[in-house]
Amino acid sequence: MTIKAMILAAGRGERMRPLTDTTPKPLLDIAGKSLIEYRIEALVDAGIRHIVINVSYQAERLIEALGDGKRYGATIEYSVESERLETGGGIVNALPLLSDCFIIVNSDIWTDFDFSSLLQQALKLNSEESPNSALAHLVLVDNPPYHSEGDLELKNGLICKKRQGKRENSVTSLTYSGIAIYKKAFFLNAPLEAFRVTKLWDEPIALGQMTGEYHTGQWRDIGVPERLEALREALAKRTVLA
């Protein structure tokens, strides 16, 4: 079974302006290489060589820059959105290009996460066919300073909704990393329109159909110019891994 990966790259990058007025965010340069190329290479190094990229804003620039993926040792297909469909609609639009179980990666993150372990998790998830088996698997990380409240909780390997107020000592909120595995069945009856994939989380979480893991290594969301510059400086000082 071939597991494909999808890199989400259709965003306008409003918070990264003015840099993204002329360059799509995934093509912003970091130490001589574009941000999205680091994600492609990490996937290929893990043995994931079939990659789908959704494009919308300056789509032709991304397609021209990355091509068919041969120079990365990959096969790249593009899911073109005439109007941006957000994360959820973008995935729904790309489903015909994806495997029955597939990996999702945001293009604007920096991480040393081991995608080979995620490939094994995807193969395992794909083999589970019981009615109560998991439909998705999320990678969570520590909350960054600009998102201290977190997104979700992880308990006994299951994703839980973040609770308000005082929590049990053993349970703390974590931040979604932008890395996940989904089965196509997760998107059954999902509309082909603009929406965030997080809107589909509630029911599978309630049914115990979303598992997760906690990544303790390097992870950064490169969403604003200040974080981009901080990453460039960290790389120059070799305080993070290239």
How would you characterize the overall build of this protein?
- The chain has helices at residues 35-45, 59-66, 86-94, 115-127, 202-206, 225-236, and strands spanning 4-8, 29-30, 33-34, 50-55, 75-80, 101-106, 109-111, 136-141, 152-155, 158-161, 173-183, 210-214, 219-221.
- The protein has 242 residues and is of the alpha/beta class.
- It has one domain (4-236): Spore Coat Polysaccharide Biosynthesis Protein SpsA, Chain A.
- Strands 1, 4, 5, 6, 8, 9, 10, 11 and 12 form a nine-stranded mixed β-sheet that branches.
- A hairpin with a 2-residue loop joins strand 9 (152-155) and strand 10.
- The two termini are 31 Å apart.
- The model has no long low-confidence stretch (mean pLDDT 91).
